[in-house]
Amino acid sequence: MAFNLQTFRTRTLTAVFFVLVMLAGLLLNQWSFFILFTIIHFGCWREYQKLIGLIHQSYNDITPFHRYGVMLAGWSIMLYFASDAIRIGSLTFSSVGWWLGLVFVFGLPIVEILFSRQLNLKNIGYSALGLLYISLSCGLMLNIRSGELWMPGENNESIFKGLSGVLASLTGYVVPLIIIASMWINDTMAYIVGSLIGKTPFWPSISPKKTWEGTVGGIVLCVVTVTLIGVYLIKGQALPFMAISLTASLAGTGGDLLESKIKRLAGVKDSGSVMPGHGGFLDRFDSLLVAVPFVWLLIVVFKIV
After folding, report:
1. pTM for the full predicted model
2. For 185-211, what is each residue's pLDDT tens digit?
3. Which of 37, 129, 132, 164 is most buried, most CB within 10 Å of its CB?
4. Are the C-beta atoms of 101 and 72 separated by less than 8 Å?
């Protein structure tokens, strides 16, 4: 695909704004991060339901309680995975999420039957997939941000080995930053490499503009850039940065293809229009939604940090 300076400028400005907002949400405190991902959560849900409605008309007929109830059920998943540090008095968000989730698990089917007089299993399935696709991912991102998956300073093979002072107290920020940076770098580098030398279509039936050259170039440059930053600026070990950035970029590419497939089935170019040059929430966070669970598993299973 030919390099378009105006498109690149628009995408770059939007990407810079995106990075600044994400950094503000991440670096201020737990509350700002929670609010940021709450906005992302509901924005993605709104677009997801619109796309599913375009693919299957029957989904447009779900009751308002189903439409908004499943969003709140997803939000309860986010609350459950939030750190105990986010609390109002002695009431933690995790406990609120647990009880709220139980209410929706039992309440949604009952109210659905009362309002619609039937249970449409296909529509329930689409909503359940949305919970996995959007809500679980946002919840796991909050869980990663909390730092509760590891004990900084106790694991000699930790990504944080050698950190001291201020950096040692900011361990909860590092992994989310790696994931977000990997998404942005991979997306930007794939676009540049694909625009300049891309010739071989990657998966034309799903994403006709994506090329093998751009895809591979984006992943390689992402891993190299993140690893160099991690080693020379954060003073961490190379392997964890390589593993997280590689996992995030590979899974993120899959997330991009998944959303492209959904949009193709729905017959639309973008999921929304809130971000000039990048479309809607799903267009911007499609890679992140799929990458986060894989990075979370990498941390939990392989103790990479």
Report:
1. 0.86
2. 998 899 899 989 988 888 877 887 888
3. 37
4. no
